[in-house]
Amino acid sequence: MRESHFCELLELNGIRPTPNRLLVVDSLSRSKTPMSLLELETALDTLDRSSISRVLNLLSSRSLVHTLEDGRGISKYELCHGSHSHEGLDSDVHPHFYCEVCNKVTCLDCLEIPSLHLPESYKVHSVNYMIKGICPNCSKNV
Description:
The chain is α+β, with helices and mostly antiparallel strands. The chain has one domain (2-140): Orthogonal Bundle (Arc Repressor Mutant, subunit A). The protein has helices at residues 2-12, 19-30, 37-43, 49-61, 136-140; strands spanning 35-36, 65-69, 75-79, 96-99, 105-107, 130-133.
């Protein structure tokens, strides 16, 4: 059932559901936190880095994957669960929290993002809300 859902998701966005693409989407969907390329490579030991990277680039170009920078400058990826506006932006934009102690990134999809009204001449391609600090688990040990 999961695989058929992922096939449908890819096909609805004009992407042929190849085995590599399905593996990457499945791995991202199972993760509770955004994943780096290295984390995906470790989880998908049957795929090499360049294959995973090509899939991520394709999924990102079709707005099926968020790309965000964690607090250390490392790109992390997560599946988009929202719809897309006429500007091509995902309605699933939400903040993330980077813990400066344990280096984990957590989705804070329970928080609302304030509306931004940019001047008319600006065109937004992506939004990245990253909050940095210490997570509750690490706060206990500080």
